[in-house]
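To the team - GCB complex, inputs and output below.
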Amino acid sequence: MLNHSLLYPVNNRCRTARTLDGLWKFQFDPTGCGAAQGWQKGLPDPISMPVPASFSDFFTTRAERDYCGDFWYETEFFVPADWQGRVLLRFGSITHRAVVYCNGVEITRHEGGFLPVVADLTGAAVRGGVNRVSVQANNELSESSLPCGAVKTLPNGTKLAKPYFDFYNYSGIQRSVWLVNCPAQAIEDYSVDYTLEGADALVHYTVRRGGDLPVRVRLLDAEGREVAAAEGAEGTLRVADARLWQVRNAYLYTLAITLGSGESPADEYTARVGIRTVEVRGTKILINGAPVYLRGFGKHEDFDVLGRGFSWAVAKRDFECMKWTGANCFRTSHYPYAEEWYQMADEEGFLIIDEVPAVGMMRSTHNFADAGMGKYTYFFETPTVPALLANHIAQVEEMIARDKNHPSVFAWSLFNEPETTSEYAQKYFTAVFEAARALDPQHRPMTGALEKNSAPNKCRCYQLCDFICLNRYYGWYISGAELEEAEAKFRAEMDQWAAKNLNVPFVFTEFGTDTLPTEHKLPSVMWSQEYQDEYMAMNFKVFDSYDFVQGELVWNFADFQTSEGIMRVNGNKKGIFTRQRQPKDVAFTFKRRWEALPLAGEEK
Ligand code: GCB
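Output:
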């Protein structure tokens, strides 16, 4: 159980939150000497650096762009004299690990680059004065970090990140930073779960708080009218004639929690919630009891110049493009995204498969390609496994704690393409799934994305999944350019899954071809826009032949940056949109297909 609060910052009569986004100071620390030399008391030779953003793509030299090792951020902030209670600094994330100092004093350490870092500055910050925050960050990869990778050290001592995954190792303070003032005895966390009773909904809630002040909970509709209220740290609200959160037709209520009584409560927290249920029954995924066919994308947080830095503007464009295609779902491949993505999905009625950064769990820098050729090693029999497992479970716990109340999040993905065929893998993932299942108050489906070697008769982990997610590239990595052969192989595998009679839904969480927007050719060749279209047509035929296939999330929403290599042309080009978010030809094919499919509540 996390002992600190991951609640998203809000402003009200009991709480103040100010962002510290802007231009920070920044310095590389290639020899890791900073802490010993007192850099936490002031950086000796800093440059300026925008926050939030990845640092890489601002630079004009390779050495700086590809920097791997320790690096520091620093800024100053004022804490008003009248701030009572606690003073917190909340980073949306720091990639991949960090030590946070306030006025030269270490406050906290955090491992993992895609979930919040909360530093309690209550004892360290000067009120009525200016304070300094210093962050010693590090972006090295290892076989016990999530995501997994390695570091290569060149003869001159320069380190290079060697990801075991197919996206650039963007790093830095990539999400907003908030300075938060909240009461000493505060609302720490809350969770909601729902059951439907005819036209009514029951909202089961629990509130975690510091101290034992009385709790009052109210539910307000979109017009701000109170529709239900209850007293106590846990209880049930009955909402008569509830308006449900529906796929692509969202309705949000406001949950208002107060601590203490009377006119001036000790604390107050409000959040937008959506009433909906999630269930896997037989081969169907049910939202509010009705089957939904998932269609949409595997995505990345990735854009020109910003790297993985969160931008409301880019996110807005992405949602508009996704809506234009008729999509209803995306997977946060391959890490939990900035919380603002989930807030927007809640409003837009998008479904999210929320993924922990467990990617690269196969010992190969090009695992996604080598795997297709049948090359892989047993990843889970090495001495790093206990540390990796502890880290994996900790990040699952933080992800579920952070995202559990979003109506958009309907499933958790606990891995992407690990080695799954050994007894070691089975033992490892059994432990991860057991830990995860104990954490979600809504008991949402748990899954993970399986690559080609996780074949029907070899995989020892699909049994853990409530629905089975397949990443398949028949017609690209397998039998590329030979679509007839690819289709035959694809059907042969699907027939094997069908023969197992698993009676669970299958979702394709990846399929796609690298495609350059400049290339056209008749007849088609691989990399041309025409080939991307023909490949999709073949895939759609296969999907439509198996009624247990309940979703298709194409790889990828947009072209994205990766490490360099002979497999990549300045990044992965499997986007349906370019990196600048303009459609490739195939986007129109998706739009035609997806708009013709029922959105939700009907069978395909
Ligand atoms: C995969 C990986 C994804 C890669 C993709 C590809 O299987 O999950 O991260 O980007 O293949 O394009 O090769």
